[in-house]
Write a structure and sequence with these properties.
Length: about 180
């Protein structure tokens, strides 16, 4: 009888955890191989931002290592009239801190000394094969789902979306920018 009670209790605990998944921490990944992160990424989805309001399709981000140890960031997208809109910025690692904690700046170099010129860019999740990434921020106001390919399976997208919700991101306004297959 005691054994039966223990098994029933364990089953109820497991069922409760399955029904109410535990929150995930909203923090940068501890390990990020910047060399593997370099290259082009396609935006699959994002939370709306004022500086992306003109973008309607083909949103990409390209990261390139620079000689001074920073990262050149080139964001591009198609606008309503079909033209290509591009923004060039720079990213840097935040030390000390987890490897996934970066900051980005699109303001001119002469303003780089101002703290508000830099924005937090946290890689909060990365595929072991560096085929997709989730980028967020401490405030949870910014979120991008990125992929090496211009589309993503619906199952993969939904799994990433679910984990982002568990990290505390409000995804009611999440904008999907790429095909889900």
């Amino acid at each position: 009888m005691k054994r039966c009670f223990q098994v029933a209790t364990a089953a109820m605990v497991l069922a409760a955890h399955a029904a109410h998944p535990q929150p995930l921490p909203n923090q940068p990944v501890a390990r990020l191989d910047l060399g593997r992160y370099m290259g082009q990424w396609h935006e699959i989805a994002h939370l709306p931002l004022v500086f992306q309001r003109q973008c309607v399709s083909d949103v990409t981000a390209e990261y390139t290592a620079t000689e001074d140890g920073q990262i050149r960031v080139r964001n591009a997208c198609r606008t309503r009239d079909g033209s290509l809109d591009t923004a060039i910025g720079v990213a840097r690692t935040v030390r000390p801190g987890p490897e996934g904690a970066l900051q980005v700046r699109f303001a001119p170099d002469c303003l780089s000394w101002l703290p508000w010129a830099w924005a937090d860019y946290w890689v909060v999740e990365i595929d072991p094969g560096y085929q997709w990434a989730v980028v967020g921020s401490p405030s949870r106001r910014y979120l991008w789902i990125l992929s090496r390919s211009p589309d993503m399976t619906r199952a993969q997208f939904e799994a990433i979306r679910s984990r982002a919700t568990l990290r505390g991101y409000a995804l009611g306004e999440l904008r999907v920018d790429a095909p889900l297959r």
